[in-house]
Amino acid sequence: MLRIVLTVSFLFWNQLAAQNPVDEVIKLCERDDCLKPEVVINDKNYDEVELEFRQWVQTEVGAVDIKSALAIGLDKLFSYARCGNVAGTVIPLTASWGVFGYLKNGKIQQRFSVFVLIVPEVINPPEPTDPAVTLQTGPHIWYYGRVFDKKVDEQQTEELVIQLLKDLEQDNQPFNSTFFDITYFNTHGLMAIGFVKTGE
Ligand SMILES: *[C@@H]1O[C@H](CO)[C@@H](O)[C@H](O)[C@H]1NC(C)=O
Question: With respect to CATH, is domain 1-200 assigned 3.90.1140.10?
């Protein structure tokens, strides 16, 4: 089995709303190789975070909820890392991993894009052999996000997404409300929920 090396690839910083999650992410970050965000702005009870360039593998999944989307999607992505690529080699993956989810009329849709980051040391990752798996790169981007550090179930996760959506709408923030992301940093529930800021 491929071991996912738990390094934090990017970091949501949150001083006001939640001291503990931030401490935890920082601890991870100090221990492991960590790419910090360029700029972090504390804003009300969420943060504005600028993420660095990063690369990941992704696959689209139709599933009833986030948990089952992750189960189906991560399996395909680990196959890519376990020689399921045109180079027939092992590609090291790293935290974080998660899903992009889609919203319609304030409801989470039953389709998700599941992703896992590829370590930055891999400069030109080989193409996947499975056409359902794609390589992605992200430019500098701004997010509105919140960090959590306790395990939450499916229903609570969905409620946290909708809560952030409503808070951003109420504050008239410029963000893309058609999709969100849920990013996991470790297996103990250290998690960030984010929406992409628009107009940057
Ligand atoms: C929001 O994101 C979707 C999906 O990437 C994109 O098609 C759409 O144009 C974006 N809308 C805005 C207002 O940026």
Answer: no
Reply yes or no on whether the pLDDT at 10 is more than 50: no
Residue minimizing CA distance to atom 7 of ligand 1:
178
What average pLDDT does this structure show over 105-122? 92
What does DSSP assign to residue 153?
-
Binding pocket residue ranges, ligand 1, CB within 6 Å: 176, 178-179, 198
Instruction: Say if residue 178's pLDDT is above 60.
Output: yes
Euclidean distance between CA atoms 126 and 108, whole angstroms? 33
Q: Which of 178, 179, 196, 198 to mutate to test the pocket of ligand 1 (most atoms within 8 A of CB)?
A: 178
Measured CA to CA in angstroms, residue 138 lies from 118, 162, 182 at distances of 12, 24, 16
Q: What DSSP designation does 9 have? A: S
Q: Which residues of 48-69 are buried (b: 16+ CB within 10 A; e: fewer)?
A: bbbbbebbbbbbebebeebeeb
Tokens matching residue 14: 């949150």
E strands, 82-140, where? 93-104, 107-118, 133-138
Task: Name the CA dihedral angle for 5, 8, 9, 11, rounded to a multiple of 10 degrees.
Answer: 170
What residue owns the CA closest to ligand 1's atom 9? 176
Phi-psi region of 124 (alpha: psi -120 to 50; beta: other; left: phi over 0): beta
From the CA of 179, give the closest atom in ligand 1: 2
> For 28-32, 38-42, 181-185, which range has the lowest pLDDT when averaged over its residues?
28-32
Q: What is the mean pLDDT of residues 91-101?
A: 92
